[in-house]
Amino acid sequence: MRYGFSLPVRGNLATHEGIVGIAEHGERLGFVSATIADHIVFPTAVESKYPYDASGNHPSTGDAIEPLSLTAFAAGRTSTLRFITSVLILPHRNPVLAAKMIATIDVLSQGRVTLGIGVGWLREEFEALGAADFDRRGAVSDEYLAIYKKLWSPGPVEHHGEFYSFGPLRCEPLPVQRPHPPIWVGGHSKVALRRTARHADGWHPIGTVATAELRPLEFGGLLDDLKRMTEAEGRDYNDITIAFVARLHESAAAIDTADRMPFSGSAAQLIDDVEAYRKLGVSHLSFDFRAPTLEGTLERMDWFSREVMPHTR
Predict the structure, then answer these.
(1) What is the pLDDT of residue 283?
(2) Which helix (H) or strand (E) holds 184?
């Protein structure tokens, strides 16, 4: 099992000291990756419902660090850590410029970028950015992804699509990773599974919040669906990386209730959870270790690296 952690993009930890401290400490502890979320602005009047909180409200008030900039900065402060956009909202950005930025980071980090992608949920943010039609964001995302892959191939290339077109051009240097940085799809809807099966190298859902409880039984059923979809696309399911995102809820004592959320409770229970998801095919687990302070966050990472990581496969 490979382990990752989230880098803060908002709040009191989203500072030079916080980002550098968490990234460098995680690399020293043996974590292999850091995930970075994507928001650019938060309009003050929002009717869209945030899908990962029962209240429907996102905790940000607009204090979001731009993720590709953060990735480039953190890559420059580390040497082995892989950076995963979790997830980059494809319609937010001009596809040619975004492809160039991602390729540049991949080159300068010597191949340490994984592109986690999503289609977004905040209609008002789309409108503020002048992004593509929110109601067509799935189709837009698929086309933008096709553009990325073209631009990451030897040129000249061109594209004439429904939402974007350009004539023959070159877009170099190409990414270090070939044929391109790994692409992981976030979300756990049937559409997200289908996008993974058709276009991606990995599936990257969050699954330990009240609105997205992917417990082993349900998660196993979705993996069966993904396998069928992948094979229907003529692809090998074994080539798909299964990467699970969890919120860590460790406790000094075991939690004995029947409805215990996975990755909550004692170290022994977390170890059992890791094994349960590993048996389902998960090879990468990423956790949100954030505490109110930087010191508390680093202590949680220390605890996990000491009490859980050495005792799992």
Answers:
(1) 98
(2) strand 183-185
**58: which 2 tokens?**
């996102």
- Render pLDDT for 148-165 as a digit per residue (tens, 0 to 9): 999 999 989 999 999 999
For residue 51 the two structure tokens come to 């899908």
Q: Tens digit of pLDDT for each residue in 210-267?
A: 888 999 999 999 999 999 999 999 999 999 999 999 988 777 688 988 889 999 999 9
Is-contact 62 7, C-beta < 8 A?
no
Backbone angles phi, psi at 149, to 5 degrees: -65, -35
Nearest in space to 262 (alpha carbons), one of 251, 249, 252:
249
For residues 78 and 191, what is the distance between their CA atoms, to the nearest angstrom? Answer: 35
Query: Could you tell me if 35 and 22 are in contact, meaning their C-beta atoms sit under 8 angstroms apart?
Result: no
Domain topology for 2-311: TIM Barrel (3.20.20)
CA 234 vs. chain centroid, Å, equals 25
Tokens linked to 134: 């929110």
Instruction: Report helix, strand or coil for 36.
Output: strand
Contact 78, 27 (CB under 8 A): yes
Measured at the CA of 11, the angle between CA 16 and CA 35, to 5 degrees, comes to 70
**pLDDT, position 30:** 98
